[in-house]
Design goal:
30% strand, 345 residues, single chain, mainly beta, four-stranded antiparallel β-sheet, seven-stranded antiparallel β-sheet, globular
Length: 345
């Protein structure tokens, strides 16, 4: 039987109440049960044309960002960027023009996005919420004292797996006491995920935190007794209790704590809104304020929180929204588990 979990990140999506969160949302023998994405990978962006000089700006003067052909690394010089995917839960990589000499400030849905500089170029790296509507989306750009301008892009469709199950109501609804705890913990978690430090990340190519088989369950949607639950917003990685969890890149520990859904959890700030989250740990070996290096042990794999077995739930957040962690992993990362999710019992 596969282990299952529900993490707070899955619960904290717009338009949902924690009461509807399933206590047993997936994990695999290893991790949060393997949801297979049913669509082909999104191609890279097309090479951008010059931006308009003022007012409402778009890529290609009179069009939107297209999804065919830009090698993101070439746009940002020596930077090694995540894989681009213009879908809900994906990442937009976009060159930004600046004439003022100041760092452009880019916001998406009211949240500040990452803007990096390399070899004379500015490039925005923007997380697209899993709840993002399809079609036209807008970034707002401020460049020094110039008026705010807009850049538009298109969010394209991606079909994530949906699983429908009938289970006892007691298995999916929270008691009054548990719901009160979840509501108390929510602001702390949201505050950690909203962290934006001005120091740029050392890298955007992350190492897998533990050497287990990883599920492709990001975006999996479950329907319990006819009621849709929030989609899964992280990656579950197989690992027995006690397996060391290592930092995937340099960072600073924002916070640690024990939460109803997540269990023992660490939040790590890598810079400019890139936050990683580690859940269900059996042990935490770092403290808030600690500076950690790539490969440093953060703690150990466990089964704390709302889970049925040990594994690591790993979340990657950009501009306060969880995106698919697989976009940040190297091609050498262990393969995903291809088997389907196991129903609850």
């Amino acid at each position: 039987m596969r282990m299952k979990c529900t993490c707070e990140g899955d619960v904290l999506q717009p338009g949902r109440t924690p009461r509807l969160a399933t206590p047993l949302a997936l994990a695999a023998s290893m991790t949060l049960a393997t949801s297979l994405v049913l669509s082909a990978p999104t191609p890279a962006l097309s090479a951008p044309k010059p931006l308009a000089q003022s007012g409402s700006r778009q890529i290609a003067d009179a069009g939107d960002v297209d999804s065919e052909g830009l090698d993101a690394s070439s746009a940002a010089g020596a930077l090694v960027l995540p894989q681009e995917s213009l879908v809900p839960g994906g990442v937009l990589i976009l060159p930004i023009e600046s004439k003022s000499g100041h760092t452009p400030v880019v916001t998406y849905d009211g949240k500040r996005a990452m803007v990096l500089h390399s070899e004379g170029h500015w490039v925005a790296v923007v997380g697209i919420p899993l709840s993002a509507p399809l079609g036209r989306a807008v970034l707002h750009v401020r460049d020094g004292t110039s008026p705010q301008s807009e850049i538009t892009f298109q969010v394209k469709d991606k079909h994530y797996v949906t699983q429908s199950l009938k289970v006892a109501p007691s298995k999916v609804d929270l008691s009054k006491k548990d719901l009160e705890r979840v509501n108390r913990e929510r602001p702390t978690i949201l505050k950690a995920l909203a962290t934006y430090s001005v120091q740029a990340p050392k890298t955007l190519r992350l190492r897998q935190p533990i050497p287990g088989i990883r599920s492709s369950s990001y975006g999996l949607r479950r329907v319990f007794n006819g009621e849709p639950r929030n989609p899964h917003t992280g990656m579950d990685i197989a690992g027995p209790t006690g397996t060391p969890i290592r930092a995937p890149a340099d960072g600073v520990v924002i916070d640690t704590g024990n939460y109803f859904f997540n269990g023992n959890t660490v939040f790590l700030d890598h810079g400019e809104g890139l936050i990683t989250m580690y859940c269900h740990m059996s042990r935490i070996d770092v403290r808030p304020g600690d500076h950690v290096k790539t490969g440093q042990i953060l703690g150990k794999v466990g089964a704390t929180g709302r889970v049925t077995g040990p594994h690591l739930h790993w979340g990657v957040s950009l501009n306060s929204t969880f995106v698919d962690p697989a976009l940040f992993l190297s091609s050498e990362a262990p393969s995903t588990d291809p088997s389907p999710p196991t129903p609850l019992h």
